[in-house]
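Our collaborator T.R. sent over the components below with a one-line note: 'Predict the complex.' Nothing else. No constraints on interfaces, no templates requested, no preferences about which chain binds where. So this is a plain run: every listed entity goes in together, and whatever single assembly comes back becomes the starting point for the next discussion.
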Amino acid sequence: MLRVEGIETYYGPSQALFGVDLSLNEGEMVALLGRNGMGKTTTIRSICRLTPPAAGRVVFDGQDLDRQRAFRVARLGLGLVPEGRRVFANLSVEENLIATARDGDWNLQRINDLFPRLGERAGQSASTLSGGEQQMLAIGRALMTNPKLLILDEATEGLAPLIRQEIWASIKILKQQGLSILIVDKNLKDLLPLASSCVVLEKGRSVWGGSPDALAADAELQNRYLGV
Ligand code: ATP
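Returned assembly:
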């Protein structure tokens, strides 16, 4: 479903990615790991063409994304939940969800079943939601686009433990429903049991790929690349 080959990405003159490879089959959840500043967000931005790579290839659902514009990529079925949960603060919860809706399996009812808190707060301004509820809304908005691949960038970062567990529970449901997911998250304890495979980034390069079990069993690998 997604194949990333040797992408190199720059911010102006400064190179952030020096060759990242990863692949994700339909229905899989791939975890993108690495310490701060190693290029996880840049990899995601490169795939979605928000910061298009200067070299390498991204093939999604049989299409080469080279030269596609970011808005086209979203229509092809990439649903991004960006770092920092950007929702429309001056719209209500329901208006936020309707704003991104496209024909498909996802609708308000299904979002509210997944996140009952959003249903209870449908008419409330998004700016009055807690951080965790805003994160749920950000995920809901991405789902309303009916993505073939959901991309989650630090979706549980900085949240209270209880609401973080609610979000992990919903991610687990999405995975069980067969949605393909690419995820960046620092909470390995919650992430690894759900992941199909892992890719580790170090200084803008993919340096290791393998199963979550292999990663969990390798203390030296975790220490070297993840600072665990
Ligand atoms: P974090 O976990 O802290 O979000 P990350 O692994 O997602 O880290 P990136 O945000 O992709 O890492 O950053 C990779 C490199 O690119 C870093 O050296 C960073 O300083 C640089 N970088 C990121 N965004 C920009 C930008 N907008 N302009 C210039 N350099 C950037």
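Summary for T.R.: The radius of gyration is 17 Å.
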